[in-house]
Amino acid sequence: MAITKEMAIGEIVQTYPETVRVFLSHGLMCIGCAAARFENLEQGATAHGIDVEALLRDLNAAVSVDSDKQN
Length: 71
Hints:
Structural class: mainly alpha
Helix content: 40-55%
Number of strands: 0
Number of helices: 4
Strand content: under 5%
Order of helices and strands: HHHH
Distance between the termini: 18 Å
């Protein structure tokens, strides 16, 4: 698993830009806000009432699909 609940949202987006669409599809629209730089995935999802496990699964699937395309 490349992405974990403990990772900062900003770090995830910076490292894996392909995850932006996943965040948006889950209703987490604050990926560019100041809090995204230090708030971890679990904190952000919980604050917005988003199922963190589903978000985590979809984020890792997006990263996996994109890395498969590169190989």
